[in-house]
Specification:
Elements lengths: L31 H5 L70 H9 L14 H18 L4 E5 L17 E3 L1 E3 L5 E3 L3 H5 E5 L15 E6 L6 E3 L2 E10 L8 H22 L6 E15 H4 L3 H6 L24 H16 L6 E4 L5 E5 L3 E2 H21 L2 E4 L13 E9 L8 H8 L4 H15 L1 H7 L24 H12 L10 E4 L9 E4 L16 E3 L9 H23 L4 H12 L12 H9 L7 H6 L4 H9 L5 H40 L5 H19 L3 H29 L10 H5 L1 H4 L13
Parallel strand pairs: 1-8
Antiparallel strand pairs: 1-2, 3-4, 5-6, 6-8, 7-8, 9-11, 9-12, 9-13, 9-14, 10-11, 14-17, 15-16
Helix pairs in contact: 2-3, 5-14, 8-9, 11-14, 11-15, 19-20, 19-21, 20-21
């Protein structure tokens, strides 16, 4: 193949003075942004690719309006246009703020360059363009890149087994579009072939046995459903990643297949119900929660650096018991970091509209507008990467792990999911869908199908949220339990119960008026449904919110499952209609059989687990046991019928989940052992305190870890790892936390929860944490 004939591999180590050059350090030295001459980082855009989203489809907000840009971060008291010293706690802006969305190749940005090739931006709306216009689009992209000093391109894909470990959760190889002629002059080349396809080693990524060193071929192929974007000097081309044998070795291929399944079966069902449409698309909005912690304190926590969560730590005197953090005023330095994150995202066309504090101290959230499922997932991966990178420039560390701290809320990524036609009819909006079809049974048909899907395939929904961090998150502190049910609310539930007993088919959501009792404030209308934050899959009026999803996850599998189980339910419904059954008979049959999965009560109650078991609702407490359901006969039949995944692909993913799980636990265990042996024991000894219990705790973790290592079967290794994590390490944690409680504060060798969790009270006037430099 064309290219260099040798490969140079380089290991990069930090300079000894790197810590002193860090962003926002106590000496006021310039941070890495200024030292390296970084421009403000800019990337992707995909507002216009929202298909089927309507103005009442939202995560925290609504459809596809353009959001105003946050200004570049400016330190208090610094005039606009002046660069503040790094000591002020703010990163500098060394280049003008980019225009909204200018770093994404769609709309007006793309149109300028495509017209020079005889095309227009409308070309990109037809996702079959790669087979017709690849060379012309490649030429347009090359011109766009040259005009913006982007001389490099990369195929950007999503390997399996990446969450919470792989930076950016993506794979990429950067290739320059410029080379030199014999006379030494540069020549620019970027062909349609290079745009559409790449080749790489498929065996060096988690693959569950689908690839090996001697059978390593892997290919990247452009995904036209997600926009090409630019970050710095690099043009990012979203792609799929598949093996030489045609197997899906990434997160995206099954997602795209499932979107095709929901499109086919959704159109078929709507046609049977009276509405012919061009397409049905899944739209999502992702609420991304995370923590900001002081970076100097983060640097003194081996566990946070290696695993993203604390494996030990005594509770601070204050937590979230006063409910004083949620939606409070944002800490001024966290706010500047959030503004900078939004600034970069807006340049990419990522509509990151909402920002606010969350329930736990130092916990925050971003939420975008709704959009098409693949582009929203691509954008979310970039949001997570940008947040982690930008936070470092503000002397913060951004933690995406589901449960970084014990005793306070963990973080989720609430996956708001809906279905819409390509011309904007929301299938989960009763008024819209019944009007569009002219059929009062239409909404009942869709809801009864989804209820049946949740009841039949709750095991797959539980599997899809089996991120290692969810072990500690599910079941409390606003995270739903590991029992898969759905909340429909009193209004819709009452309608369906009456309907099953012969009541009216047409559902019109009721509303109620609230009055404040203040004459100057007019009464206002609110939905009839309350919020149930203890349900894993509540109906929120026009969408379902999968609240159990973990914050660190790539949500491709989550949405692959939702799309696939719904497509199968739609398929079965159409089969019944086409065999001569009436919609009313089908709806009543489905509801009577599967209504047991509807639970509108308190998911945290002590009675619910027993009641769920009696009902026969899916309850899988262990993430490892949930993983084991991936390749069950039922689920293989489902995915193969809908042409989403083969048995081989399912078995590979199950294996990858086991390996990822026990790999994460191993890192946590080794971190705990090192922290006990190398830090806590010496500190306690220097204080003249007994270390016997600590030494015993370290040995118990080490012994159980050895048992994990000696087991040859991946499923059994994961089972042992779960025991190590939830039993042995929790006992060892108790010993460590007791040691922290008795050790003099000036001798304790690592950052405490007090130092990690309270930015508001830990900062000086320059934005530096007051604990910096004490140890």
């Amino acid at each position: 193949r064309k290219g260099p004939t040798f490969i140079l591999r380089i290991l990069v180590f930090p300079h000894p003075s790197a810590r002193e050059m860090g962003s926002g350090n106590s000496k006021g030295a310039p941070g890495p942004v200024q030292a390296a001459g970084y421009p403000p980082v800019v990337v992707n855009k995909q507002v216009a690719a929202v298909k089927g989203a309507t103005k009442d489809d939202s995560a925290h907000s609504t459809a596809s309006t353009v959001v105003a840009s946050s200004p570049a971060p400016i330190a208090p008291g610094v005039a606009p246009g002046l660069v503040p010293f790094q000591a002020s706690g703010f990163a500098s802006v060394s280049a003008p703020a980019p225009e909204l969305g200018e770093k994404c190749f769609i709309g007006a940005v793309a149109d300028k360059y495509l017209r020079a090739q005889g095309l227009s931006a409308a070309t990109l709306d037809d996702w079959t363009w790669p087979s017709k216009h690849a060379d012309a689009v490649a030429a347009a992209i090359l011109s766009w890149g040259k005009d913006n000093n982007a001389t490099v391109f990369t195929h950007w894909f999503q390997p399996l087994g990446a969450n919470n470990v792989r930076p950016g959760q993506s794979g990429q190889v950067h290739n320059n579009m410029m080379t030199f002629k014999k006379d030494g002059k540069p020549i620019w080349e970027f062909s349609g072939k290079e745009l559409l396809r790449g080749e790489t080693d498929g065996s060096s990524y988690p693959n569950g046995g689908m690839r090996a060193t001697h059978t390593a071929g892997g290919y990247t192929v452009l995904d036209a459903s997600s926009a090409i974007f630019m970050r710095g000097d690099t043009i990012y081309i979203p792609t799929i990643f598949m093996s030489w044998t045609g197997l899906a070795t990434d997160e995206k291929i099954p997602l795209l297949r499932s979107a095709e399944a929901i499109d086919n079966e959704g159109k078929r069902l709507l046609k049977n119900l009276g509405l012919a449409c061009d397409g049905v698309v899944p739209n999502i909005g992702l609420e991304q929660e995370f923590f900001f912690v002081p970076r100097d304190a983060y640097a003194r926590r081996l566990d946070l650096q290696m695993t993203g969560r604390t494996v030990m730590g005594k509770q601070a005197p204050r937590g979230q018991e006063m409910c004083d953090h949620y939606m409070a005023g944002i800490n001024q330095f966290a706010l500047e970091a959030m503004k900078a994150i939004q600034h970069e995202c807006y340049a990419l066309g990522i509509p990151l509209r909402t920002r606010h504090r969350e329930v736990a101290p130092n916990q925050y959230e971003f939420a975008p507008m709704f959009g098409y499922v693949t582009s929203q997932i691509d954008q979310n991966l970039m949001v997570m990467q940008i947040a982690e990178e930008v936070a470092a420039r503000y002397n913060l560390a951004c933690l995406m792990q589901e449960k970084p701290f014990q005793g306070i809320n963990g973080s989720g990524k609430h996956n708001n999911w809906s279905l819409g036609t390509t011309d904007g009819v929301n299938l989960l909006n009763a008024v819209q869908i019944n009007k569009a079809t002219g059929n009062p049974e239409a909404f009942n048909a869709i809801i009864s199908s989804i209820v049946s899907a949740v009841d039949k395939h709750g095991d797959l929904m539980r599997m899809a949220i089996s991120a290692p961090g969810n072990d500690f998150r599910l079941g409390a502190c606003e995270a739903p339990p590991a029992i898969v049910s759905t909340y429909l609310g009193t209004d819709l539930t009452a309608h369906l119960e009456k309907y099953m007993n012969g009541g009216d088919a047409n559902y019109v959501p009721s509303v109620q008026m609230l009055s404040s009792g203040i004459s100057a404030i007019a009464p206002f209308e609110v939905p009839s449904e309350d919020r149930n934050r203890t349900s894993p899959f509540p109906y929120g009026g026009h969408r379902f919110e999968f609240r159990a999803v973990g914050s660190s996850q790539n949500v491709s599998m989550v949405n692959t499952v939702l799309n696939t189980i719904t497509a199968e339910a739609f398929s079965a419904y159409s089969d019944a209609l086409e065999s001569g059954k009436s919609p009313k008979d089908i709806n009543m049959g489905l509801l009577k059989e599967h209504f047991k999965v509807v639970f509108n009560g308190n998911g945290y109650s002590e009675e619910w687990p027993d009641e769920a078991t009696k009902r026969g609702v899916w309850r899988i407490d262990s993430a490892v046991e949930a993983m084991k359901t991936t390749s069950s006969d039922k689920n293989v039949a489902l995915f193969e019928k809908m042409k989403v995944m083969s048995k081989t692909e399912l078995e590979a993913r199950e294996n990858i989940m086991y390996v990822h799980y026990y790999g994460m636990v191993e890192m946590e265990a080794l971190s705990m052992i090192d922290m006990i042996v190398q830090q806590i024991v010496p500190a306690m000894a220097s204080a003249g305190l007994d270390t016997g219990a600590l030494t015993g705790a370290a040995k118990s973790v080490q012994d159980k870890l050895a048992a994990v290592h000696h087991e040859g079967d991946d499923y059994k290794k994961a089972v042992l790892a779960r025991e190590l994590r939830l039993e042995v390490m929790m006992e060892a944690r108790d010993v460590c936390d007791a040691a922290e409680a008795s050790c003099p504060a000036n001798l304790w060798p690592m950052a405490t929860y007090k130092e990690l969790l309270f930015l508001d009270s830990q900062q000086d006037g320059n934005g530096n944490t007051t604990v910096m430099g004490q140890y």
